[in-house]
Amino acid sequence: SQVRLQREATKELLDAIHVIWPRARAKVFGSVAAGLALPGSDVDIVLWLPPVRNNILENILEVGILESGNETKESFVQQLARHLRKFAFINAESLKVVEKTAIPIVSVEYIKSDAEGGKSLMIDISVQSPNHKGLLAAAVVRELLEIFPELCPITLVIKSFLQQQGLSKAYTGGLSSYCLTLMVASFLIHQAGRKFPSPAALLLDFLHLVSHINRTWKFSIALGISKIPESETSFDPLFVEDPLQAKKNAAQ
């Protein structure tokens, strides 16, 4: 199953990563952790070090940065990419380092060969940092899904379309799953007080709304949807408020 493949891939990757970072830990976040994954969705994994003790009785709360004995001044993702290229379960041709983004990643294709034939899984690996909000974002999405039952089917339909068009990754100019979820949730909040029709009707209403954006609109899970005065706009036609980082546009 897809879940078993994800677990096997995470374990094999972590075993390989332990060669260079013995204390590293890994956790899945993103749409898989939030419950909004499509068949074939990429798996997002974040690496970090567990808390350490500064004495017998007291724990240091912050997780540690990864160790590196590398003196070539490579970034963590560059070092990780070079290391993973050695392993047979990684498609070396698929390996890509993306650093010109808020959270640098290593994108790889995991390949598993067995008696039933080959299976593959795309995985994006990032490293924990103060700016990394992936695990918290997954928690926000799970809470929104509990509040709005309509959120899941509407988001999955749009995600499927974006995936087919190659527009499901923010770092390639598309729309991230997190951003899309915030937009749909803001739309549902904007409908407060209105008796919800079927999810299909809500989907059509949402698509009609976003297709008529002709100036900067703000999507907020706190305030719903509003137009931003021209005096306050930037060049972005879309502003999706990130509840985890004040004034950050999740659409960027």
TrEMBL record:
It holds the Pfam family MTPAP-like_central. One of its GO terms (biological process) is RNA 3'-end processing. Residues 3-128 form the Poly(A) RNA polymerase mitochondrial-like central palm domain. InterPro entries: MTPAP-like_central (IPR054708), NT_sf (IPR043519), Trf4-like (IPR045862). Transmembrane segments: none annotated. GO terms for cellular component: nucleolus; TRAMP complex. GO terms for molecular function: mRNA binding; poly(A) RNA polymerase activity. This is Poly(A) RNA polymerase mitochondrial-like central palm domain-containing protein.
